Each structure stands twice: as C-alpha cells, then as structure tokens.
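Hello K.,

You asked for the raw outputs rather than the summary table, so here they are, unedited. I folded two proteins back to back in the same session to keep the settings identical. This is the first:
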Amino acid sequence: MTRILVIGEAIADFLPTDDEPSRFACVLGGSGFNTALALARLGASPDYAGTLSTDALGKRFHRALAAEGVGMGTLTRSDAPTPVAIVSPQGASHGAMFALHLAGTAHEGPAALPERLPPGVVHVHAASFAATVGAAAHASLALLREGRALASSSYDPNIRAACLPPRAEAVPLIEARVAASTIAKASVEDMAWLYPGLAPQEALERWSALGCPMPIVTRGERGALALGRQGFVEAPSPRVEVADTVGAGDTFTAALLAAMGRDGALGPASRADSAFTPERLSRWLGFACRAAAFTCARPGCDPPRLAELGPMASL
C-alpha cells in the first residue's frame, strides 16, 4: 500500500441537527484528520502527524484513527483540550464555520513533526491552516520541500480566513507551500479569497508558474479542473442529495492521492513525463469527485470505502 504522511489539524465539529439551531451533534473533523481517515478507507497507508488532546474528545480521535489502521508513530499528544468548530446550519462549504475555538487548545501547542520523512513514506500531504501558520508551519514547509525533492508532496490551504493573517500576508505563505508541492488543490471559494478577480483557470496558471506541476481547483457540483503538463483537464461531479459538505474537499484529496498511488504515480515516479497525462488526470479527478460527492450525501466527514464506490474503485 502507498504510505503517505499527513500533516494537519484534528478539530471536533459540532453540527446543528435542527434549524434553530438548538441541538448539535459532535463529529470528528479537521482537514488533516479527515484526509488521513479517508486515505485509510480508500486503500492507502497514511501516517497522521498531528496533535491530539488527551481529553475525552482526543481519545475519540485516537480510537477512530486506530480503528482504520492509520499510523500514529508521528502523533503528538497534549493535555490541552481538543479544539472545536461550530458549523452553521447551511452546511460547511467555504466559510460556513461561524465559530472556531482554538485558543488554549491542543492545536496551539508545540507540534513534534519529524525532521525528515519517515522511512517508507512516498508522499507527504500538508493540510489547512495548521500547515500554513502556527506551531507546525515551518516544519510543514520543510517536509513539503523534502517530499518534493525526494518523493512527492501535496498541499491544500483549505482557507479559513479567521485563522490566517491578512490576505496580503497569507498569500506569500500559501504560495511558498504551493511552490514546494507536486500537487496543490484548492476550492473555487479558496481561490476567490486568495485572488479576487481572477478566474479559476488564471489562478491555476499562477500556481503552475510557481512551479507546481499539478494545480487543481474543485468547483462543487461542477466537478474539478486541473492544469497538467499538457493543458487543462476537467471532470464532472455526480449529482447527489447533499446532507452537508463537511470533509468533501479532504475526501477529494484523499481519493486523488489513493488513485494516484494505485497507479504508481506518487513518489519519484511523479517526475516522469508520463506521470500526469490527460487520460490519467481525468480518471483520478473523476474518482476523487465521486468520493467527495459520496461524503456530501451523509452528515459530517464520513468518507466512503472502496467497496462503496462501485466500478470507479477499480481504476
């Protein structure tokens, strides 16, 4: 199986169960956790490099990772409480979280990320604001650069403006990580925040000019668009009845990496001229869109397993 190091936060998401909202359900979330969980369910072998609290919620996170067989040799434990996000009744697409509680939590403690890629890791993925600002930012960038040089790497900024410095300061931080990545993915809403007035195609061209071989933008029900070495490639998204969009972007990333891993396109192989052909890109994007749509059809981030995805699982 493809061994992937995942860097990112674990946050308890409180989802409203009615329109008031007066009642909430607590589900496990955070971009790094979601991606590691989805990778394991889709047949990859992820190692989670994040920080978990030792409180009751942190123990839930730990049990969930262990149950899926996620490697935790790079995990950090903290006595500070688990960070929490309150999600709006409209669902959790871009900006739908109306409250993020990070101060004084395990998220703000020191992150003991490995100084070098662990043996056997062929790809490193860094997710969201935990990889962009804060305690783990510098080490995350260093690991992305090492991954790009020795294996392959990917980055998803997963913009949460409240957790970032002003745009003029945030853009260079994000672009440094894009430049260090073999693959960089953002939602169309993320791109609109980063580059007001730029069309998605123009934003992808900007990322390509930074040196990223495979920039991608996800567009919700309109599917995904990537810029490969031979031009733009897009894939549609299946129509589903949406419960919410929590974790859809993380599932997309995990499914993309899992599909690429099955095709032997991660690691040093990602630098081959034949790695990102239009045909391969189209298949990978289609599989990722299908997995993300599946996640949208049920509450919270509950990624599919290969067996649930039908024929697309046999790429």
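The second followed immediately with the same parameters:
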Amino acid sequence: MKKLLPLVLLAISLQAAAQQDPIYSQYMLNPLVINPAYAGLSNNLNVMGSYRIQWIGVEGQPNTFNLNGSSSLLQDKAGIGFTFSHDQIGNTKNTEVNASFAYKLELGHDRTLSFGMQAGLVNYRIDNADLNIYDEGDEAFTNNERGTTLNLGAGVILKGSDLLIGVSVPRMLPTKFKAGDSEFELYNQHYYVFGAYVFYLNEQLKFKPTALVRAVKGASASTDIGANFIFNSIHSAGAFTRNFKTYGIMLQTLYREKFRFGYVFELPTNKSIGTKYSTHEISLGIRMSVLSFHENTITNF
C-alpha cells in the first residue's frame, strides 16, 4: 500500500487510545447489533448481514461486516441469537463473535419487556506489514500484534406495536491489550440509548421518527436523529443526521414478507471529514416462521 499518511495516522491513533465501537446506521432495522435484548423479540427467526464502508477516498477507511441472527423460543418467552463482526481501520482489524440470550416479560397492552445478555470473544490484530514505513527500523512498527479477550454485554428493550426503546452496554468488561511493554484499552464501555415511535397517518402511510445516543468515556456523546416514512408496511424511506455533521438517506424494502433489503448513503460535512468522502451501508435479511408459535405478521420493529 502506498501513500499511507492517512493510514499511518489512523493506526497510531488507534494504538494510542481506546477504540470506538463500529457505527451502524441501520440500528433500528436490526437492533441486535447494539443490544442483545433484541434476540427473539420479533417472535420469529431473523438472519441479517450488513456491510459498511466509510469515507470512500480516504486510504485505510473504516469498513465493517456484520452477520447476525436470532430466534424466539419457549412459546416466545425467550430468545437466542448470535453476532459476528469484522471491523477494519487501516492496519487494525477486530473480529468479534457473541452469543446472546434474552428473556421476555409480557406487560399487557401489547407491551413486552426484554432483558438480554451476550458473551463472546474479541480478536484484535495489528498488521504492520500492510504499512509503508518511512523508517523501517522504527520499533513502534517492527512487530505485528494480536490478542483475544472475553466480552460480556447486557441490554433492556421495551417493545410495543408502535414503540421501541432500548438501553444497552454491548461491552461491559475492560478490554485491555498488551503490546510489548505497553498496555492499552481495545474498547471503552459504550452506552447506547435508542428509541422510535410510529404514527399512523392513514391506512397506507406511517411516520417513524428515531433517535440514538451513544456515549463513551473521554469523548462527546454522539446523537443520531432520523425520520422515516413507511408505505404499505413494506417500503420505507427517510433521512437522518449524526451530530449535525453527517447527513444521510435510508431506504428499505420487504419482498414477499420475508426478504429485507436496506441501503444507506451518508455524506459528511466540512464539520466532519469533508463532503467528498461518502459512506455506504447495505444490508440483506430474511425473516421466517419456523416454529409452530412463531408469528408471520409484519411488524413495525
């Protein structure tokens, strides 16, 4: 790889401080990526994959692949799920696998409270061979680094036919990594609070505003605010902003009530990295009723 100044700066910054969690713009389409309490909450089987490439044109730009699935069990009283993610920024790569379990309480009035936990492993790698080092004898870039650590996470979600509210901490344990004689954190604890509400405008049209707040020690809170219109409970289109520094559009469609496709286009402003570095995120999913107590109906969440 050539012309690696942006890549080197990214790598140095990642090795000097704890990393940020991967960003997912389609968190309302698939809350399991940030909250284990969503496992089985749709009362059927859901499997989804997504790919996000951020800041196209910046060498060493972040890109994230995620594959996850969940199913309700025990007459819809519980749920299980899994998440697999691979996140890369420059020469730094994280691979994470988690298994999740959720228990649901029916509150009446079509409200469900779900408590979820997840556990898994995070593998961390720094491949300095990908860098074009100016000083090949620089000890900071001499050796590749890698390690594996345990992860635990927890979350709570309140779900109704017209609302969804969640709070979660996907990584609760300190994730420290030793590189030679030095030690640094892979991740700080991130706290997520998200919510959405559906307004029924008429028989064919719904309006769904959404919000997500992501907080982490040592950095300012990040806030996503979005507005979506849902047509015939099948197609949706909307727009959102992240901290009023990045703006995006979001499209989603459901085919034959089973297959889901989502697409996001983001454009940062000059308050962020600049308008010429766009971001794209796509997702493909399938929802099925595979057990006798699973539901076939299309829901807002």
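The chain has one domain: 5-288.

Happy to rerun anything if the numbers look odd on your end.

Regards,
P.
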